[in-house]
Amino acid sequence: MNAELISIGDELLIGQVINTNQAFIAEQLNTVGISVTRMTTVGDREQEILASFNDAWKSHDIVVVTGGLGPTHDDITRSVVCKFFNTNLVRNETAFRNIERLFASRGLPVTPLNEQQALVPAGCVVIQNTQGTASGYLFEKDRKTMVVMPGVPYEMTAMMENFVIPHFSRKPSGFVVRHRTLKTTGIAESLLAEKIGDVNDLFVPEGGVSLAFLPSPLGVRLRISVRSTSAVDADRALSEVEAKLRAKAHKYIYGTEKEELEEVVGRLLLEKKMTIAVAESCTGGLIMDRLTDVPGSSAYFLQGSVLYSNESKISQLAVPEGSLLQHGAVSREVAEALAAGVRNRSKADIGLSTTGIAGPSGGTAEKPVGLVWIGFSDNQGTFAMKFNFGTHRRRFKERTSQAALELVRRKLLTID
Amino acid sequence: MNAELISIGDELLIGQVINTNQAFIAEQLNTVGISVTRMTTVGDREQEILASFNDAWKSHDIVVVTGGLGPTHDDITRSVVCKFFNTNLVRNETAFRNIERLFASRGLPVTPLNEQQALVPAGCVVIQNTQGTASGYLFEKDRKTMVVMPGVPYEMTAMMENFVIPHFSRKPSGFVVRHRTLKTTGIAESLLAEKIGDVNDLFVPEGGVSLAFLPSPLGVRLRISVRSTSAVDADRALSEVEAKLRAKAHKYIYGTEKEELEEVVGRLLLEKKMTIAVAESCTGGLIMDRLTDVPGSSAYFLQGSVLYSNESKISQLAVPEGSLLQHGAVSREVAEALAAGVRNRSKADIGLSTTGIAGPSGGTAEKPVGLVWIGFSDNQGTFAMKFNFGTHRRRFKERTSQAALELVRRKLLTID
Fold this sequence. Notes:
Two copies of one chain form a homodimer. By secondary structure, chain A is of the alpha/beta class.
């Protein structure tokens, strides 16, 4: 079964609000085998809303509408729904008691404006709103379904989880859609595509499989999608394709789904009962910020420093002044001295460091903006690697932090 | 003039990626008097894309398309554009040199897959991509315009700012829409609304003015919008409303438009020729990460530490072990010792510190998750302030970093 999502609201069309509802609803519908094939956003005007309803209803099994159900003058979705289904408003006692309950809990009397929210289109199934005053509606007609919900994200979310998803789960759609995402870093999209080769070779003979490349500054995600009449077959196909991808690009795959590299590194450190300390120059604290985003990171992350000035590199981590003078702050020698220095000072198992030119200015012909050295030190020794991560300051910091964490991951797994 | 936005990509339809491009593009087009009246999202399939092009082209003056311009097999937008405009691909030398330049800067050879990205539809104006390899296109036909850009947000953003908005600015639409945003922090939306009072009192008699409250974890933005036939009138109305808002909420307004608090603090430090050092516990490096996001921050940010373990607080910044034992790590005494300690060690003018319970677990009845002390030290003395920023780990870190930077701003401006 396929679905179209329609969002209603001028605040979306002027870009005041980012639409997070559509992604949430799509992801949820996917879990019960419903594919969203179009998303539309229109303003608070009757003709535009009616046109979008007509269009969606013609070409889709399911239409999910959000927005415009509030109590004020600019909320017109309810009346448009009545017009579309050629019906009228009737009072719903359950909805009214819910409104009374909500106002009582805030110590407020029910206003006439809110009492009107107990009126719902005749002929619909009413979706109770546990979080607010506007009811949702579900219409079934001509083997099609329209769901109408408020646009307030937490009201909509509760309706989806408590009513809409259970409703569609009871109506098997005849097929399932499954996705799996493999997250890679340290390789450009085009080089990854070359390594993987002809994508058709990856797929199972039964078909229904697709692969997407999703690039971002932190790496390329590979998303496998399978559509099948059987959940068992779909999962088997996913695993087969995943195994083939891993065989071709093992080294670069650090995680799956929404897993972040700092979580993967944290888990490896925990498993190996190892600790880490960090000395950051050009990344300015971002590596430590990411490490400490993980709950429980205090078990392996002890301390670290941001050393922006040359003086602080010398006084805090005993970076030899000679190295700074001879090679400059952005050099293999200083990266290694920082990594070894922070490891010694903290008694951590691993010392990690960065020193580079974050830009947007400050580069030279020999050391351009974007140049960075990442240092690593453990009981096997100390070394540094050179990268160039471009002239955009924030993305430079993000890509450097990702490369530094990836270096730790590969060392911990002895990849390469 | 009106516009429809079309986003292309299966990752949007399955809810894997939240579409932030549409809001950004809509907001930008607004500034040059173009109203977005519909937004559509479709998948990576030729028939769906073509249908959405036909539909949008019929009913709008401008169509802005994003997504599906990458180098891999699932990127089909370019070929659909050729079909729609009945044209073919030709090699663009400027685009090719841009690809060469990008790869050279990363020390990589241009792959055949990427070389193909220098092919663009004949008859379009090529929009150069300063951030990546895929060119954008602009077509003008029958007094209508289609703009096609990559879906990668920072590539699209640069094209909008450098090319698309300047292009449409040169074609006056008959009226202007102007927005101004005042950024506040440290006050809840409802209290700010109370301070501001009846919004109608703010507005100019000519009308066409509106005010929106946009809350976020870092503070509430106040957005003034003016629509007028005259740019001069619009700007004057904006300034009048801004002055009235500032009179009512001066203390909380730290910046305008997209200005970040770390930029404001950085500018003040530069003006006063002062330096800062930071000792972070619960924020894990986020404050320093934010400070160093500002180009030129090395002029006032010298160094700092992330001290997660009690041992590191003692050994690195001479926090008295007695304070830690008697009051615990999350206490006024330790926050003050950290701020004074990092100031002493670094010889900076200001020492700033955080110590708190970031959660999601680890709280007690007396010291719940979300509790944080922020310490401040300068040549006038040392003090700490207590806050509670909730149980969501990342938002706790963000709100703490914001409160710490705001504390510095108010001290530097002697507000309060």
